[in-house]
Every structure is written in structure tokens, then in C-alpha cells.
Amino acid sequence: MTDFDRRPILVTGASGGIGGAIVRQLVDANADVIASGTTAESLEAIVAETGCRTAPFDLTSEEQIAEALTDLPLWGVVNCGGFGGEIATPMDTDIAVFDKVMAINARGTLLVTKYAARTMIDLGQGGSIVNVSSQASLVALPNHVSYGSSKAAVDNITRVSALELGRYGIRVNSVHPTVVMTEMSAFYWGRPEIADPFLATMPLGRWATQEEIAAPVVFLLSDGASMITGAHLPIDGGYTAV
User: Fold this and answer.
1) Would you say 215 and 25 are in contact if contact means Cβ atoms under 8 Å apart?
2) Residue 188: CATH number of its domain
3) In whole angstroms, what is the distance from residue 169 CA to residue 165 CA?
4) At what angle do helices 108-123 and 62-69 cross, to 10 degrees?
């Protein structure tokens, strides 16, 4: 069983379903979890459930991120905070929405990495960063130009960060989930004309659970993945392999 021996690990997007599952599994694995969301109020439920610490900040604000993370001792980071944007083709996309998706998903991931990595380097204890990307960065999904583009940027942030931080013993990897059928995703992926052909193409033929996304994240953070960096791990039931 993985034991993080009370290493401090920041999880952004901790008020969401996948982020909350990651927090719960890390707490169960004896990590000292610092949960982050846009507001302290949004984190109250996960704090009450797990007893984790908090560091709320807006992913679009470099000032808030710098204030929260500068001098915050960290061994690990999970960049899970994100924004889905809109369902639209390149011809119909709203550029204001595109800019917001990029600001939260890509720019936010880079900003958290920027300030967290500085402190991790100063501490000199190595560490691990896991970025939650998407299957939408690996293959073309209809109507996902904004979201897929933002996650493709996250993938490059992952690769370059792995290159730059390896000398300090800090590993950087990404995971690429398929759809988790939440209330938010059901409005699109729950439609039979969308869901049926998608699942028919996927070898495992079913939606993922939040726990199935969280478990590989915990593994990549752990010492069991100590020789893995710069990797992009699909958690997609084989969809991107077809």
C-alpha cells in the first residue's frame, strides 16, 4: 500500500468530482493534502470529509497563486482545476470562451507549476507533479476545439517541465481521462447519438468513474513511479488506442 509519509501535496480543482476523489485517495495514502479551489467555501465539504488543509486561489490570477504558493512547502502537485468551455466547432467557437478555457486550463497549470516548482527546488527534496489532461488532447473530438487545445497546451507544459525539473529530482507527468459521467458532462455525452457511437469505439465500452481517474494519479505521484517522467498516461478504456 502506498504511504506518502505525510508529504505535502497540493491538489487544485479539489472541489470537483475528480479532484475530490484524488484528495480522498491521497489522504487515505497518508499524504498531507492541501486542497485548492476558487473559494474557501467551495472546499468546505472536502475539508469536513477528509480533514485536509486548504489554499484557495483563482487559477486566472497570478497574484493569488503567487501569494498562496510562495513559501508553501510542497513535495507534490496535482493540477486538476479546469474549465470545460463550450461545445462548438472551430467555425462556431466563441473566442472569449476559448480565451477563458486557455486561461484556466493551460495558463493556470503553468502558473501553479511556476510557483510550486520554485519552492520544491529550494527544499531540495525532489517531488512529483501530475497534470490532469484529457483524451481530447490525444485525438480529435467533435466540438472540442477549445478544450482540446487547452489540454494539448497542458501536455507541452508537462513535457517541458519534465525536461527542466528532472535535474532537481522532480518528476512531471500527465493523465488523460475519458468521460466521467457527471451531471455537467451528461448534457452532451449523455445524448444517445453522441454516447452510443463513442462507447462502441472504446474497447472497454463504458464511462470511467472518478475513482478510476484518481488511482493512476496517486500512482504517478508515488515512489512506485520513481523512474517515470514526461509520460502521458491515457485513462480512457482504450479509446485513443483504436
Assistant:
1) yes
2) 3.40.50.720
3) 7
4) 20
Residue 123 located in a structural domain: yes
Which among 63, 144, 158 has a CA at the least distance from the CA of 106? Answer: 158
Asked if residue 121 belongs to a domain, the reply is yes
147 is catalytic: yes
CA distance 57 to 77: 15
The answer to whether the CB of 145 falls within 8 A of the CB of 190 is: no
Rounded mean pLDDT of 140-166?
98
Domain count, the chain: 1
User: pLDDT by residue (tens digit) across 4-33?
Assistant: 999 999 999 999 999 999 999 999 999 999
The boundaries of the domain holding residue 71 are: 8-234
Do the domain assignments include residue 241? Answer: no
In a domain, 1, yes or no: no
Q: Identify the band that residue 183 occupies on the pLDDT scale cut at 50, 70 and 90.
A: confident
Which of the residues 147, 168, 188, 239 is marked catalytic? 147
The answer to whether residues 145 and 131 touch, using CB atoms and an 8 Å cutoff, is no
